[in-house]
What we know:
The complex is a heterodimer.
Chain A: E1 9-13, E2 21-22, E3 26-31, E4 34-39, E5 52-58, E6 61-66, H1 72-81, E7 87-92, E8 100-113, E9 121-128, E10 133-135
Antiparallel strand pairs in A: 1-2, 1-7, 3-6, 4-5, 6-9, 7-8, 8-9, 8-10
Chain B: H1 4-14, E1 24-26, E2 40-53, E3 61-72, H2 78-92, E4 102-105, E5 111-115, E6 121-132
Parallel strand pairs in B: 1-2
Antiparallel strand pairs in B: 2-3, 3-6, 4-6, 5-6
Amino acid sequence: MATAAYNVSVVVHTAAGAGGNTLNGINDISFSLSRNIVDISDMIGSADFTKRLATLKDFPISLSGQYLPADAAYVTLKNSFSGLNDAFIRIFTDSGATTGFEVQVVVESIELSFSPDGAQEVSISLQSTSNVTFLP
Amino acid sequence: MPSPDLDVANALQAAAVGTVGTDLFVGRMRPPSDVIPQAVLFVAPTGGAGPTPFLDGGSQDYSIFAVQVLVRGDVGTYLATQAKAESVLAALHKAAIAGYFQTLARTPQPLYLGLDDTEHPIFSVNVELFHTG
């Protein structure tokens, strides 16, 4: 059975493990578990298929939603962008905030956008700098 | 759950556009009576959009509450009633109402709805109140 997306939450912390603050105002999250694929085909003998090797892992994250400058989790990300602290992201997919992923990130970009008929909005792009930890 | 109709009524009272319980009421328009004057404002909820949950474990939603203010004037007072309705619009558009991050009028001018059965001119002002919580 499908799971409601609104159960998802993003917690931002300056260290791995429990703690940190939920990032509020977010209405779109993209998170992928990917590996760079290298073609290692050799065409030796009768081999007529492509051979690949899964190499380096990558876990990019993009977040977007309402811009809340006083939000503690956002402040942690902003400080990480400024080089003041590390940033660890935990993405929980259940309402109990126990199941999900954790990864250390670097903040690639924080984009603010404003239009007169709505809330101020922010888009944050994060790139991983550690292996992913599957929670719990 | 906020009460946007009551919040709008209180905002109009704070802007000295009307007085709750005297010439400003919450709910659907009622005919003149011993307690309802001919020149009167009625504030009623008219739906809106959402609630749309945020991705924060489901703790908060984003909602847009629609509220309509009906402005009824004395018989034969079209221009004065229009001016009253314009003061309602001016008081509500971009008003800072506690609990909402913005309030916007949905038309640039009040809508004239014509005369009621007893020839009172009626205007409407429609606003949206943006809420997260």
